[in-house]
Amino acid sequence: MTDPGSEPLANLLREDRRFAPPAGLAASANVKADAYRAATADREGFWAKQADRLTWAKRWDKVLDWSDAPFAKWFTGGRINAAYNCVDRHVEAGRGDKVAIHWVGEPLDDTRDITYAQLQDEVCRAANALTALGVGTGDRVAIYLPMIPEAVVAMLACARIGAPHTVVFGGFSADALASRIEDCRAKVVITADGGYRRGTASALKPAVDEARTKTDKIEKVLVVRRTGQDLGEDGWDDATDIWWHDAVGSASPDHIPEAFDAEHPLYVMYTSGTTGTPKGILHTTGGYLTGVSYTHDAVFDLKPDTDVYWCTADIGWVTGHSYIVYGPLANGATQVLYEGTPDSPDPGRWWRIIQDYGVTLFYTAPTAIRSFMKQGDEIPGSFDLSSLRILGSVGEPINPEAYVWYREVIGGGRTPVVDTWWQTETGAVMMSPLPGVTAGKPGSAMSAIPGVGVDVVDDGGRSVPNGSGGYLVVTSPWPSMLRTVWGDDDRYVETYWSRFPATGERGAYYFAGDGAKKDADGDIWVLGRVDDVMNVSGHRLSTTEIESALVSHPKVAEAAVVGATDADTGQAVVAYVILRNEAGDGGPLIVKELSDHVRKEIGPIAKPRQIMIVPELPKTRSGKIMRRLLRDVAEGRAVGDTQTLADASIMDLIAAGQAAST
Ligand code: WT7
């Protein structure tokens, strides 16, 4: 494990700027300071109140059943339909003509506005079409789509019929798609011919065809026509493939939503852990929807009649699930959904969208902010961004410079920045300033939101004093918590609940895998992962997963991967590889060959920034790779303590090789 109190991050704590909420925002905020006290006094009562934001077909009997901890049941006995809550109820309340989605395709002027009534129509048709394809309650459906409205429709259609979806990010490879489909045994895949990335149509369907050669679970493939690109002679199989516009277009727009148990599985989202295989994080219906609806309202202070919200995440990640689909739609928001990259066709693309649609609430990742910051103030400065009133950040620690730039240049110095800490597993935001309450500190996620308990603890699970660092934990169950790892209850218990088990005085703590510090005021600064998980541009990657991909290449004998601090991407993947004897020096293109291999096995996001061919890896006498030393080399530091190495001279060889290659 990495020392959570490492040196460069300690600098963060010298930050002493504060930004108080604007008076107007504070006065009219959805959530005020008294919520903290109310939630602490009666946590379950507080969450019951939040669940009342939703429309239940049958009210719950009990808020929380924790008798089988750490397996939680929230709102037991309650029955609810997630799609009804995100769509129909707004139409029934007379808001059918309100725009739900301002969709912006990547090609200029390729836009569509979709009202709640139109969304209802589409979701009902898609639900009927899925049923006609044989998808029943409980069956899993994989979704592999670009950022088009059909992605939202597909998710809600699955939710409507009680078929848990598993959305796989469009940037993942056919292998990654196949392994996820195999793990959760999805019988239908919803995909598109392709999508637009940086001005060109890039195909998606061929990856599904390739996945079908690796898993026999796929019975039907529903294909949205997005780009109209030629699928080729072998690119269509009449036995399995159906066009979305045929199946959904011809289906009835009438569909009565069935109410499911509050604990009915809503979706499985795969995420990287510390081992080679991604884990399927299971979220269920009532508690999850309560969590995302409440946090979207509280953290973004959503005023549904006047706000225009935009979250730039992809629907393939949990942020897209919670803060594009379920949270904002449950709250009846109007939002922008953008298909493309931030700089296509030009670097002003995002700011033009904010200007054109009058975006008021904006949610993005530090890595994007840093890349805009590098391009200077002039580009955003040439757009009218005065509609913005709150800016959000998610995915990795935001450095104070980026925070202040975001606030000043994008937010015109008026907008609170909400740095939201959460995870795929937590389902919803856990720590964040409240925009109408908290005087924010650049770089700190501050404290748990009302209803949630977090702490920073030492190795023994004892709360650390202010000014000290340790491990970030969640101290009591929360409604949007993961329920298990799909098909692997033991891994759920082991990964999250065994590190800080229950004591005589308290229950077990949820171990988040992050290191954190408390400052002198007790505010929390998240420092990054303490396990073998990396965070590259806000994307979570496992060192072991990339190592396995490298070792699956015929020329590779052994590989070690570390996450090295990177000014642009937060962390970057650096790989050290030992080649097999028979591969010789691997040939002149070996680095490219290995890099392409990782891309093919996992996807472009996992491509190493640097691959070093080395003669040996630093190991302890018991054979454990000392990643700490490799990180020293990758980050250009003097190599730390090598006493426990079996052969200390190895580090000299590796460091010399690194110097020669940079
Ligand atoms: C990991 C979770 C949360 C949705 C997107 C990522 C890091 C996330 C912050 C933040 C510092 C953050 C943590 C966490 N992280 N938000 N505001 N400050 N670190 O979800 O892929 O499950 O990754 O992202 O390390 O454990 P994820």
TrEMBL record:
<feature type="binding site">
    <location>
        <begin position="395"/>
        <end position="397"/>
    </location>
    <ligand>
        <name>ATP</name>
    </ligand>
</feature>
<dbReference type="InterPro" id="IPR000873">
    <property type="entry name" value="AMP-dep_synth/lig_dom"/>
</dbReference>
<feature type="binding site">
    <location>
        <position position="599"/>
    </location>
    <ligand>
        <name>CoA</name>
    </ligand>
</feature>
<keyword id="KW-0479">Metal-binding</keyword>
<keyword id="KW-0436">Ligase</keyword>
<keyword id="KW-0007">Acetylation</keyword>
<keyword id="KW-0067">ATP-binding</keyword>
<feature type="binding site">
    <location>
        <position position="553"/>
    </location>
    <ligand>
        <name>Mg(2+)</name>
    </ligand>
</feature>
<feature type="domain" description="AMP-binding enzyme C-terminal">
    <location>
        <begin position="545"/>
        <end position="624"/>
    </location>
</feature>
<feature type="domain" description="Acetyl-coenzyme A synthetase N-terminal">
    <location>
        <begin position="34"/>
        <end position="86"/>
    </location>
</feature>
<feature type="binding site">
    <location>
        <position position="529"/>
    </location>
    <ligand>
        <name>ATP</name>
    </ligand>
</feature>
<dbReference type="InterPro" id="IPR020845">
    <property type="entry name" value="AMP-binding_CS"/>
</dbReference>
<dbReference type="InterPro" id="IPR042099">
    <property type="entry name" value="ANL_N_sf"/>
</dbReference>
<feature type="binding site">
    <location>
        <begin position="419"/>
        <end position="424"/>
    </location>
    <ligand>
        <name>ATP</name>
    </ligand>
</feature>
<feature type="binding site">
    <location>
        <begin position="197"/>
        <end position="200"/>
    </location>
    <ligand>
        <name>CoA</name>
    </ligand>
</feature>
<feature type="domain" description="AMP-dependent synthetase/ligase">
    <location>
        <begin position="93"/>
        <end position="478"/>
    </location>
</feature>
<feature type="binding site">
    <location>
        <position position="537"/>
    </location>
    <ligand>
        <name>CoA</name>
    </ligand>
</feature>
<dbReference type="Pfam" id="PF16177">
    <property type="entry name" value="ACAS_N"/>
</dbReference>
<dbReference type="InterPro" id="IPR025110">
    <property type="entry name" value="AMP-bd_C"/>
</dbReference>
<dbReference type="InterPro" id="IPR032387">
    <property type="entry name" value="ACAS_N"/>
</dbReference>
<dbReference type="InterPro" id="IPR011904">
    <property type="entry name" value="Ac_CoA_lig"/>
</dbReference>
<dbReference type="InterPro" id="IPR045851">
    <property type="entry name" value="AMP-bd_C_sf"/>
</dbReference>
<protein>
    <recommendedName>
        <fullName>Acetyl-coenzyme A synthetase</fullName>
        <ecNumber>6.2.1.1</ecNumber>
    </recommendedName>
</protein>
<feature type="binding site">
    <location>
        <position position="556"/>
    </location>
    <ligand>
        <name>Mg(2+)</name>
    </ligand>
</feature>
<dbReference type="GO" id="GO:0016874">
    <property type="term" value="F:ligase activity"/>
</dbReference>
<keyword id="KW-0460">Magnesium</keyword>
<keyword id="KW-0547">Nucleotide-binding</keyword>
<feature type="binding site">
    <location>
        <position position="551"/>
    </location>
    <ligand>
        <name>Mg(2+)</name>
    </ligand>
</feature>
<dbReference type="Pfam" id="PF13193">
    <property type="entry name" value="AMP-binding_C"/>
</dbReference>
<dbReference type="Pfam" id="PF00501">
    <property type="entry name" value="AMP-binding"/>
</dbReference>
<feature type="binding site">
    <location>
        <position position="540"/>
    </location>
    <ligand>
        <name>ATP</name>
    </ligand>
</feature>
<feature type="modified residue" description="N6-acetyllysine">
    <location>
        <position position="624"/>
    </location>
</feature>
<feature type="binding site">
    <location>
        <position position="319"/>
    </location>
    <ligand>
        <name>CoA</name>
    </ligand>
</feature>
<comment type="function">
    <text>Catalyzes the conversion of acetate into acetyl-CoA (AcCoA), an essential intermediate at the junction of anabolic and catabolic pathways. AcsA undergoes a two-step reaction. In the first half reaction, AcsA combines acetate with ATP to form acetyl-adenylate (AcAMP) intermediate. In the second half reaction, it can then transfer the acetyl group from AcAMP to the sulfhydryl group of CoA, forming the product AcCoA.</text>
</comment>
<feature type="binding site">
    <location>
        <position position="514"/>
    </location>
    <ligand>
        <name>ATP</name>
    </ligand>
</feature>
<comment type="similarity">
    <text>Belongs to the ATP-dependent AMP-binding enzyme family.</text>
</comment>
